[in-house]
Amino acid sequence: MKSMNTISSAAEPVDATTPSPAETPNTETTTPDTAAQPAADAGATPAAGAQGEASAPAAANAPAPSARALLKQLQQQFPAFRDCLPLAIGIDKQLLARVPGLDRKTMRAALGIHTGSMRYLRSMEKATVRYDLDGVAGAEVTDTHRLHAKEQLQQRFKKEADRKKLEKAAAAEAEAARLRQEKLQQLASKFSRG
Questions:
Q1: Residue among 13, 105, 15 nearest 59 (CA)
Q2: Over the stretch 125-157, which tens digit does the pLDDT of each residue have?
Q3: CA angle 150, 155, 157 (to 5 degrees)
Q4: Of 54, 15, 66, 55, which Cα lies nearest the Cα of 38?
Q5: SS3 of 138, please?
Q6: CATH class, 67-141 region
Q7: Dihedrals phi, psi of 53, to nearest 5 degrees
Q8: In Å, how far are 12, 13, 93, 119 from 27, measured between CA atoms?
Q9: Which pLDDT score is estimated for 16?
Q10: Which one of 33, 37, 106, 166 has the largest count of C-beta atoms within 10 Å of its C-beta?
């Protein structure tokens, strides 16, 4: 019986257009506006239908996971994300095959956050090999990709330095304006006495 639950829960996200008869009453009784949500949201948590009605309100009210939440899940689930290893080309196809019901848009946003992070770019800058989801070495990292990572890091450092320079100039200008205002007040008070 347990294998049937596993099969049905894995199949639920694939058929996201029509909810099963068991799910339809749960989504209608939780809140009136959940019936208007797409069926993909109801299938985003496949274990909710198998656990019973106690978890149905929490699953129905939970929005689709954000890109950052998905990234945290991927970091917990896959060594390549957790260890910030250079990802294999086509890792998105591996993710879609291994994580049923994964929203492509959210997945791409999570991948963008991950591959744009300083930690990942530093890893890519020195990398020689790419890794699959399980951390198994695969294809080599090309010089072009290493150079791209290095350029991205340099751009980030330059932007940060420029931002700090602007902040420092703004603070100096604000201090100069404050001092001018103090001097004007001192002059005004000096001449108002006399």
A1: 13
A2: 999 999 998 888 988 999 999 999 999 999 999
A3: 95
A4: 15
A5: strand
A6: mainly alpha
A7: -75, -20
A8: 15, 15, 31, 41
A9: 38
A10: 106
Q: What is the full DSSP assignment across 44-107? A: TSTHHHHH-TTSHHHHHHSPPPPHHHHHHHHHHH-HHHHTTPPBPTTHHHHHHHHSTT--HHHH
Give CA–CA dist 61/33, Å, rounded.
Answer: 10
- Radius of gyration over alpha carbons of the chain, in Å? 27
Helix-helix angle 118-126:143-193, to 10 degrees = 140
Cα–Cα dist 170/177, whole Å? 10
The pLDDT tens digits for 44-81 are 333 333 333 443 444 444 556 789 999 999 999 998 99
The type of residue at 74 is: L
Question: Residue 40: which of 10, 18, 8 has the closest Cα?
Answer: 18
Number of neighbouring beta carbons within 10 Å of residue 103: 19
Please tell me the predicted confidence (pLDDT) of residue 65: 77
Question: What are the residue ranges spanned by the domains of the chain?
Answer: 2-61, 67-141
Encoded amino acid at 183, one letter: K
Place of tokens 């257009």: 17
